[in-house]
Design brief:
By secondary structure, this protein is an alpha+beta fold. It is built from eight helices and nine strands. The longest helix is centred in the first third of the chain and has 24 residues. This is Serine/threonine protein kinase.
């Protein structure tokens, strides 16, 4: 009898460990979003450009982000290049650490004085995706957070140590289907330094079941990158507020870039290369 009880106790302990691990992994229809990362990841917008100049610091662009700006009617449907994404879940929070996983990324956000994190999930016919925007102190902090999300580069053929911690990445605001499968198939993400904001766009084919299913995800990434159009509107507004330095020069003559004016080309760096190789 004692032997039977002992076996049952061991079995229950083992079952408890399995349940705990499964719960920690996230996923499921109503469960938390999985802590995972894309197969391919690249960083854009790190150089000198107008957005990094005009929106370079939160001091120059002090108005906080708001839900209507990020998730209003203009962001409810995002379409371009024959693709259409529909907003499903959204969240804007001051708790930046809750929007990511991984100690390195959490620390990078703290060092960059992150005050807001906005996240959304989008679904389309052939793809689903996650968008995120972080409100940081300056463009330098934006670059640092983008770098913290990259896997460390290793010499060719060398594997990372078994006990090496993963850098972490963005956590989707929902683990509902199909986002419970995010990262289990082939996916790619692009982080774009946009002044003192960092914008992350992450997409996966709906029918992808393996990380080995390599496909080009340039077009859906470019399409969903229109999520950051509110930043272009901020850029135009701040530009119009700047006093003219030339006699007779007007303001507001330029329009907000259209849906095709998104950094990145048809070939997204890193989507066909090893993880962590960014532009």
């Amino acid at each position: 009898m004692g032997v039977v009880v002992g076996v049952l106790v061991v079995a229950l302990i083992g079952l408890g460990a399995v349940l705990y691990l499964n719960r920690g992994d996230g996923g499921g229809t109503d469960g938390p979003a999985p802590h995972t990362r894309p197969v391919a990841y690249s960083v854009e917008g790190v150089g000198d450009n107008e957005m990094n100049t005009v929106l370079g610091t939160r001091e120059a662009d002090s108005r906080p982000l708001n839900e209507g700006e990020l998730f209003g009617d203009r962001s409810a449907e995002i379409s371009s290049r024959g693709m259409e994404f529909t907003l499903r879940d959204s969240e804007l929070s001051e708790d930046c650490a809750a929007a990511v996983w991984g100690d390195e990324v959490v620390q990078a956000l703290a060092d960059a004085d992150c005050t807001q994190a906005g996240r959304a999930t989008y679904v389309g016919g052939d793809y689903f995706g996650v968008t995120a925007i972080f409100n940081l102190a300056d463009a330098e902090g934006s670059r640092a957070v983008a770098d913290a999300m990259a896997e460390p580069e290793l010499p060719e053929g060398e594997e990372p140590p078994a006990d090496a911690p993963e850098p972490g990445f963005v956590v989707a605001p929902s683990g509902a289907e199909p986002f419970d499968r995010l990262g289990s198939g082939y996916s790619a993400a692009e982080a774009t330094v946009s002044g003192h904001y960092l914008v992350v766009v992450w997409v996966q084919p709906t029918d992808s079941e393996s990380v080995e299913d390599r496909v080009s995800l340039a077009s859906p990434i470019v399409t969903l990158s229109n999520f950051r159009d509110p930043l272009y509107r901020r850029l135009v507004n701040l530009r119009e507020e700047e006093p003219s330095t030339e006699p007779g020069a007007g303001t507001g003559t330029e329009t907000v870039p259209g849906t095709e004016t998104v950094p990145g080309t048809e070939t997204v760096p890193g989507t066909e290369t090893a993880p962590g190789t960014g532009g």
